[in-house]
Amino acid sequence: MTSPATPPASPGSESARSDASSREPLTVVIAADTFAPDINGAARFAERLAAGLAGRGHHVHIVTPSVGYRNHGVFTENIEGQDLTVHRLPGVRWPPHDWLRFVWPWRAKHYARKILTDVKPDVVHSQSHIVIGRGLTRIARQRGIPVVATNHVMAENIIDFTTLPPVLDKVVVKLAWDDAKRTFDMSRAVTTPTRKAAEFLEQTIDIQGVIPISCGIDKRNYTPDLTPRQHHRVLFVGRLTTEKHVEVTLQAVARLAPELPDITFDIVGGGDQRRNLEQTVQRLGIEDRVVFHGRVGEEELRASYGTADVFAIASIAELQSIATMEAMASGLPIVAANAVALPHLVQDGENGYLFEPGDVSDLADKLRRVLTASPEEYLRMQEASLKGVEIHDIERTLDTFEKLYRGEPLAG
């Protein structure tokens, strides 16, 4: 694996990166139960973290399931412009899900022993406590290798795919969180993307000291369009699963159609709910206003943000929402459900509006406010989004994780 040059400094972290560049690079193993080509928040964070660390000269190894059971091995893959070493373990597709893959749990420790023996990392960073991260955490603990754990999981993210009767969902979730606590107790530090998510984790599994660290984005990858124009394009980016509640936005768009004849809704992303959502579109009679783009490449994704006028997210299970941050970095006003971590990104009345989860009338009203705003008011919301996303600069995120990897204290 090559060691690319350190990326340009960003405001607020130049001295920290200068100090880091003069020190010995670290060897980091990142355990990721979901990774490219998967498209979801946890996968995208793992990709950006790995690429950012490699860009700073660290030696990064990603451990993740293979695409196809027989396509396993060690590969050099270009992620976010960096050549990374990816250990793809034999992956099995989970039938109830349209793309999710997993490693047989009883093989996880075996793979962990082999990888840790071969790589000899300074630290393991687990992105999931479910299979790969669980196995690597336990073997790393036995060998005295420090572990940093990041939680991206909420119960709503998994219970739709257990295939068990609903009455058993609470039992499954409790067992899963009990096991998560055992895994997190073996870690040097436990992190999650926001303070709200940290409080949720501390209350759910009775642990203390969870550290909120933004997933971070590179604002330089997004080009805001601040020129005056007519506003009619609503955008959603994300997995089409039940906890995203895209149907609520569809109903709001249908409600606004008679008074806003140009309104359209672009849906970017794939998932098991696409067919149900397409049927909802037909039932609502808005086939000419809704476009399902499916899973798209990075350039097309950024273009989607560039042509949209407002980003709408009705999800009730966001521990942060990278897509919302990307929309903010693209200069879009946001209309979001007032649930979990979304209020950390959307300041009601500033860079957009919050609406009561599941309330179609409230969502329609907030979308109307954005789409009919005066040029001055719309520009004010755009600028508030750009200002609000500054704290989520990926360089700050990398600075913080480097300190955790080295066992250094965090400021504040």
From TrEMBL:
SUPFAM superfamilies: UDP-Glycosyltransferase/glycogen phosphorylase. The keyword Transferase applies. Residues 1-10 have a biased composition (Pro residues). It comes from the Bacteria. Residues 39-218 form the Glycosyltransferase subfamily 4-like N-terminal domain. Transmembrane segments: none annotated. Residues 232-384 form the Glycosyl transferase family domain. Keywords: Glycosyltransferase, Transferase. This is D-inositol 3-phosphate glycosyltransferase. It comes from Microbacterium flavum.
